[in-house]
Amino acid sequence: MAKLWGGRFSKNTNELVDAFNASIDFDKRLYHEDIRGSIAHAGMLAKCGIIPAEDGEKIIAGLKDILADIEAGNFHFDVALEDIHMNVEARLTERIGSAGARLHTARSRNDQVALDMHMYMKREVAEIAELLLKFEEALLTVAKKHEKTLMPGYTHLQRAQPITFAHHMLAYFNMLQRDFRRLLGVWEGADMMPLGAGAIAGTTFPIDRFMVAEELNFGTVYPNSMDAVSDRDYIIEFLSFASTLMMHMSRLSEEICLWSSTEFGFVELDDAFATGSSMMPQKKNPDIAELVRGKSGRVFGDNMTLLTIMKGTALAYNKDMQEDKEAIFDALDTVKMCLTAFTPMLDTMRVIPENMRKAAAGGFINATDCADWLTKNGVPFRDAYKATGELVARCIELGTDLENLPMDEYKKVCDVFNDDVYSAISLERCTNERTVFGGPASANV
Fold it and tell me: Which residues of 142-157 are buried (b: 16+ CB within 10 A; e: fewer)?
């Protein structure tokens, strides 16, 4: 098939070059945006008197027919036509004749693909925002059920201080709130209309870019034509957001893998959101959490791919930029899939408070509160810290804990101790007296 750009060439493109150059296998998912943008462009050309009004009507009607064919599965995409833009335009011209050849007036594939991607990103960001909010709601639901469920908090994966499960879940909620804020920034970057920038320097035709922007619901228009066709930072912003979100989800996934193990026994995943072993009949594996943890690396790779593509491209458009699509499409699909699977897994997860409480009772996680009690009773903190450390060592020798250590053992270390210390180091009090803003006390949560 003759190329729409082939006027200057005397030979047909080698088939290998066609295959190497083509993007239709992956950019055909932009068909809706491409046709919607072309309809807006044709309407503007007709209203501005750049093409006859009747040609504008034919173009718009023809594009709507092509959209219906694609959605019905009745459209053949031709690799020789390289991309979604030329496939649609060639089919349009076949159907309506010379009027179809007027559609590309005052635009380039450079600003056309930029428009498609901006529109596509806005649609995808809206879908991901909805999924992210559902994930946040799931965390809040779990937290609300476990405002008083005690568990050990960890540093270095060692038991550190008592907290509540609600406090732990809200830590992830706060992370996701910041992720949502970053996603709003992605939307803002995508909400700029590039059409009218042409290949690099705009056009001499008297087009109305703001009319197209209004028709396509864009908040603003790119003020520089070179930037408009070569900008991919809004995509990089999304990939950065996606990488951070996946990192947060991966951290929670790691904890769910630990918590659902026999060694922890803090949670049990619903049978509908776990898998078994083909060999070991007793197994119940946290595959969703493991896959989310693994897929985070995939999204990180997509982010690095686009940064590497863009770092050496002089202004304005370069064919390298075609490589942005597979990376962004993969990241979008991965993030949506992970959010879609993770949220119901969290919703249906059974928390086992008694195992959390049992774990909190071990590991001397009230030792800091013991030292604080001494400090509140006049002992310098460093002396109180040393004394409590000696008590912990004594408990280990005796095979007991601070709550059950006899008072005479306390007195051997520091004669300031009295029976009030037992109340001060109860796990409930240790948790609920941490009322400082951001602390785990039930009142705060």
Answer: bbeebeebbbbbbeee
3 state SS of 153: strand
20: pLDDT strictly greater than 70: no
**Contact of 84 with 34, CB cutoff 8 Å:** yes
Q: Give the pair of three-digit tokens for residue 326.
A: 């597979």
Banded pLDDT at 80 (limits 50, 70, 90): confident
- The model carries a pTM of 0.89
Helix (H) or strand (E) holding 161: strand 158-164
- Tokens at residue 161, please? 């201080």
Say what percent of the chain tops pLDDT 90: 81
Strand-pair partners of 164: 150
The contacts of residue 331 (CB under 8 Å, 6+ apart) are 238, 239, 242, 298, 299, 302, 303
Phi and psi (nearest 5°) for 150?
-80, 145
Residue 87: name the closest of 30, 39, 46, 10 by CA. Answer: 30
Tell me the CA distances in angstroms from 356 to 14, 143, 178, 303, 387, one per residue in order. Answer: 66, 14, 28, 38, 28
Structure tokens at 89: 């335009």
Neighbours of 9 (CB within 10 A): 10
SS3 state at 164: strand
Contacts of 177 by beta carbon, 8 Å cutoff, 6+ apart = 136
Classify residue 285 by its DSSP letter: B
Q: Which residues are catalytic?
A: 156, 277
Rounded to whole angstroms, the Cα distance separating 332 from 61 reads 32
